[in-house]
Fold these 4 entries.
Entry 1:
Amino acid sequence: MRQLSVISLFSGAMGLDAGLEQTGRFRIKVAIEKEKSFCSTIRANITSGILPPDLQVIESDIRNVDPREVLEAAKLKPGELDLLVGGPPCQSFSTAGKRGTVQDPRGELLWDFLRFVEVMQPKFFLMENVRGLISAALKHRKLADRPERGGAALEDDEMPGSVIRLFADDLQRINPSYHMDCFEVNAVNYGAPQLRERAIFVGNRFNIQVDFPNPTHGSPEQCAASPSDLFSTDAPVLPWATLGDAIGNIGDPGEVMMDFSPRKKSFLAKVPPGSNWRSLSVEDQQESMGKAWHAKGGRSGWWRRLSFDLPCPTLVTMPNHASTSLCHPTEVRALSLKEYALIQEFPKDWAFAGTASQQYAQVGNAVPVRLGAIAGTVVADAFDRIAQRGFKPYARQPEHFRTVYIQSHVRTRQWFKAGETFVWKDGGETVQPTYGAPVRARRVKRMVSI
């Protein structure tokens, strides 16, 4: 099986690309990234021999890059590239904070990815993004002006999912043989020690419908219910990997650390492992949280102290914020950069360049390496299928593009319920954590043109 050629867009610290490399099936020829420190990280790992020595780094805003010149740099012609991969910046699609969708200029980078698809005509493309992209609308209407609040009916470009439906329509205009499947997944369900929801898009120009594997890891309840019969065709579900599995025995946390201020540490010192602000006295809550104390939701990250017994929450770019704190379970400090990289499952000798904040941003924004490896395996398997046909497209394309939900929404605990704070301690007698049972494991929706 030959290695498949890859061109990487929006490469960042190359978490997704590192996952592809781990499969042994891909070779990255060109990486495009505009941030200087991120490019320095890529070059450092080329120099150390972790990344291919002939990998070319283009340090530029992708909006100023001609895809034809990139193909020339990779010594390829249109149609010869095996895989185009990338994750356009996702802040404008996130459900956290103000949601601007494509009214935000960053949202237009989604169509820059499509511009590269149009020129390069790759056999396959792999695009990742925040899960919020799937429900994003082309035009955002304020909640106060929506129909349920007395406003007019939503127009087509205000409907949830209209961004991806238009993207899918434009993809078909580029080449009717392109098919695309989108998967809503969570890295923790595949063995990563971190809760991280992502949207994975796999496209190909051969009319192949691909599938993402079912979760291989789950809660204690799911493990107990999984098949144990030796003759079962389904593999048993393994327990979720935990923060303790990732960093519980590393010893030296490394020198790079964006730590909490003395004031923040004074409150975190009062929080037991696995809990958050709910474990503080009401007086400390009010003093430390200010106006946020009166909010109705979105407060679970305030004064959060992690637990070795559970998967890590989604890594953020700055672990030392009071409202999204990632405090070490047994020490009153933030997670170090080294611990961040282990949670994301970067190779242990992977180098990061830039200031401390830039390095944390690189790791926090990265795709979990394990998820990149699994997505790469999906692509490689589909590639092998079509190679056996001599790369002849299937005459009949699938009826619709699909969005496949695969148990992506995972809750590993309840912070507060019926007036009680639920806290379980690391070590000693540990009360069984309360896991939220998944609503459904897999659900398929068809994309209908707008």
Note: Confidence is low (pLDDT under 50) at residues 424-431.
Entry 2:
Amino acid sequence: MDEASQVPEAAFTELGRIRLDETSVEDMLQRVSQLASRTVPGSRDVSVTLVRAGNARTLASTSDLAKDLDDWQYRNGFGPCLDSSPSGGSVSVPDTAAEPRWPGWARYARDRGVGSSLSIGLPIQEAVVGALNVYAERAHAFDAEAVNLAERFAAYAAVALANAHLYDNAASLAEQMQEAMRGRAVIEQAKGIIMGERRCSPEEAFALLSKISQDTNRKVRDVAAALVARAADSPRS
């Protein structure tokens, strides 16, 4: 759409009512995109880019056109959204017909009816960044007011992505801790078996597990698990 159809205060009030514990990050970002496209003056389409470990993808978009313009940048490795993501700043393309920095992307965008664009960087974590991308039909569509509004929407998107990143890290850490606890339990079981068979100390039992691990090029946990399984399968007298 070429002109904003929603009052900014109403849009931000609506965003403020969204609870991240009651909706998915994708739904939250989709709502940010939709409201931005209706609120930022000159906006036609909006998308949200996430870049993690060098891999970029679009998490939300208001149209196939916005996603297509993002995907072109991901495939070719350059463009305004990829430049704004690591810098955290705002990158404006006032006129795709006269854009010297990314002529290939500008020509691609112009052929699809896009005259200008604005990408706002989303600094989330050290290894995870992103961008809010706003596309317009006409050239020179984004004035200072439009940039300011886009940056305010970007702040909401950054919070949603940061929370998602923290959740992913917490879930990954919890899984690692559970795996470590399972590994420790099986090692303790194996030590008990060795101590019973050899009448040795816990230290001597662990030393034996470590030696087998080195000799067979297997993890201590795997050696212990094999020993426990063998003991469980052995017939009892």
Note: The chain has a mean pLDDT of 83.
Entry 3:
Amino acid sequence: MKKLITLLTILVTVSVTAQNFQLHRDLERGHFTTTFEMFKPDKYGNTFTFVDFDYNTANGISGAYYEIARVLKTEKMPVGVHVEYNGGLGTFDLGEGFSGGYTINEAWIFGANYGKSNAKWGFSTYAGYKAFTGADGEANFQVTGTWYWNLIADKLTFTGFADLWTENGLTDNTVFLAEPQLWYHLNKTFSVGGELEISSNFAVDNDAIKGRPTLAIKWNL
């Protein structure tokens, strides 16, 4: 799971901190993922952070991914300054009770952020330079868009994000990742729904487009 954002609160500056905890069941890969995220606005912009944990081994947590982003923007600025850091690690099965580990190369993103919203719908997007650890000086970029659409007020919301980025310079294949989500709100505290992870050139996948659905519950803290 990545950027499973309560987009209404992210796009509209509010005076309280938004936090939620999510539990997803990946129907194709057969494992659970938990996500904790927090969004906090202030008079100079907003801060968003989240962490994902995958559970697909007998020993518990098999992967972790962390992201934190800061948007610097005042009411007089039509476009905000976006600064982001992300990275993670994981394990894989070697058989006979042994496992190996790997790290997800950390990355910094520096760019510009723009958004529009109202009570019914909204979007936010940013584009920036992406600096990878171990990229050997290659120039990379990332473009991200997020959205929400309240299909039925206080009951049904369509939300999600889409990323496009490079990892080895402009001559390499680009990576695409999107996670559209649908949430039915049982009340102000709990929602049920799921997402469809759509990807190409992501992780160990080839350039074929993959679709992985989940079923999920969200607890708004």
Note: Helices lie at 7-11.
Entry 4:
Amino acid sequence: MTSARSFSTPTTIGLATLAVLGVVAYGYAEYGGWNADGAGAAARYTARFSFPIFVLAWSASALATLWPGGWRSVMLRRRRAIGLSFAAAHFVHFAALLIAVCVFAAQPSAKTIYGGGFTYVLIAAMALTSNDWSVRKLGPRNWKMLHTFGGLAIAIVFTVSYLGRLDEKPWLAIPALTLLGSAAALKVFVWMKKRAPQRAVS
């Protein structure tokens, strides 16, 4: 029987990192090895790999609030590990993207450079503060503001990215946008539900 200790946060992050490195290897292998097409594939596939991990972390609280118990509560308890796994996977994507740009002269758009760069700063800040010490030092309110804003920024970047693929790859964009929209709707519903008693009292 596998113990709960086997699924500690470092173990979860390590497994996610190994998996996304496997995705990198697959991207290069698909296009014959170390070349521009392989680098582009590695960058694309790693972004797709990290996307559902982000959605899990971003929607964990809303799911557990609306339907407590079962796998939703387990996911909420493991949200820190899930979020850090996303950060690890997405920084592998960042490395794959840098290789495509710096080694194989891929031309990223200004949107990718500035929007993506700012989002990576937020991802790094969220990862570095995903611990109890940071919550105490920042204060729960400031910590929550950082992670709420960071999660929203990441969601917006993914939304813009998949909207840009609607014409070319609807089979990829539509499910991704549906997931993001559903997660956002759940979060808005929870927010409205929490504010409802306050409006009734006032």
Note: DSSP finds eight helices and no strands in the chain.
